[in-house]
Amino acid sequence: MVALCCALLAACAVGPDYQRPEMDVGEVYKQAPGDAGQDAQPVEGWTPARPGDHIERGAWWQVYGDTTLSGLMDQLNTANQSIAQAEANYRQAQALVRGARSSFFPTVGAGAGATRSGAGSGSTSGSGNQYDLSGSVSWEADIWGRVRREVEASRAEAQASFADLANIRLSSQAALAQNYFQLRVLDEQKRLLEATVAAHERSLKLTQNLYDAGVVGKSDVTLALAQLEGTRAQLVDLAWQRGQFEHSIAVLIGLAPSRFTLPAQSFAQAIPQIPAGLPSQLLERRPDVAAAERQTAAANAQIGVAQAAWFPDLVLSADGGFRSGQFAQWLTAPARFWSLGPALALTLFDGGARQAQVDQARAAYDAQAAAYRQTVLTALQEVEDYLIQLRVLGEEQVVQRRALEAAREALRLARNQYEAGTINYLDVATLEASALNSERTALTLMANRLTASVQLIAALGGGWDGLPAQE
């Protein structure tokens, strides 16, 4: 009967039941391509987040079709130390959940001892032995739901820790992909500058021959030499930039920079088409959004923990064993003792400490709910930013390609005219510098588009299976 009453009382739990904070995210992205683009209007109302950070994202980097990048990602997933640290933190959070659940069960203890005691010569008691063997059981009934709220909070914290693990893994993967693409574009710039140096060497030789023949002046030779050495300086400058990207990749895959080298290889990467989905899906995919939402759930549970302090604690305990002054009679019935009974404790006055704890818990929940909403807004902003960046960079690349083709053609004509003696070398040098700038700008645009595509994938929460074909 007592157990039935305790079970009925345990059915209630003080404190508010958790409701996910409402968030207006709109129906479509403003910068999404297609009809639902810039002119789309957000839908009124609130969309609750249902985190899906536990869903497997898949190897999103495979959409780029680069086997070297895929191999580096495999090393990162197994050896990255930031991921290992986050995984250990998650295991720690899981242990805290198990520790909180242990409060549902009684505590059982046992003890045994033997003592000899005595008094001074003026005492009549003399000395004697005491033998004890006892056991105890104690259980605090979770009448007001304090333990359940603590378990609820610790479980939400563990889920937040798991989301943090997913977020660190995704961030590390995105950083590796960006560093890799930047390094490959630098290799392409190196090949471009090496070819430009070879062209300038031929121009210098031609100008020197024309000078020896008296066709051009010494200034043309000096200008050709200056242009050659300037391009060589640009080529040398690429070395430290490539080295730093290579060092970053080494650390991301868990290696010392001195133990890692990434050889140069030809590189021509297409930009994959990335489906943005719907804003409401973002709340289910982004691990940082999921972590913030779970932290909000934990803060809500702490309100119930604080409110439970207003109610009395009921502890059921039992003790029993044997106690005797003679070893031979230690485990006999006359030496047996036991006690059984409930204990009810209630704090009557604490100077406002419990109310302060409740107020603190409510304020902590409000702060975490605001942090969650801010995380959602930041996530939406990032997606919009990378959508417009990727779209505008694509448009810019089309225009830049036409400019590059025009610069190449103008340089070809100028070189022919210079060899024919109709223009001076200054005109050729100007067009060569313009063409080189156009070439490097085209490579920079490719790097920026690749970086923006990686950032968009990360902002959307990871990869997907069955992406559309590459451009």
How would you characterize the overall build of this protein?
With about 475 residues, this protein is of the alpha+beta class. The chain has helices at about 1-10, 65-80, 80-100, 145-210, 220-250, 280-285, 285-310, 355-420, 425-460; strands at about 105-115, 130-140, 315-325, 335-345.
Blueprint (SSEs and pairs):
Elements: H1 2-9, H2 67-79, H3 81-101, E1 107-117, E2 128-141, H4 146-212, H5 218-252, H6 279-285, H7 287-308, E3 313-324, E4 336-345, H8 353-420, H9 425-459
Antiparallel strand pairs: 1-2, 2-3, 3-4
Descriptive keywords:
single chain, 471 residues, 4 strands, four-stranded antiparallel β-sheet, elongated, alpha+beta, disordered N terminus, 9 helices, disordered C terminus
Low-confidence stretches: 1-6, 35-51, 464-471
Number of helices: 9
As a percent range, the share of strand residues is 5-15%
Which secondary-structure class do the elements indicate? alpha+beta
Order of helices and strands: HHHEEHHHHEEHH
Helix content: 55-70%
**Main β-sheet, spatial strand arrangement:** 1-2-3-4
Rg calculated over all Cα atoms: 37 Å
Shape: elongated
How would you briefly describe this protein structure?
Helices cover about 60% and strands about 10% of the residues. It has 9 helices and 4 strands. Helix 3 runs antiparallel to helix 4, helix 5 packs parallel to helix 9 and helix 7 runs antiparallel to helix 8.
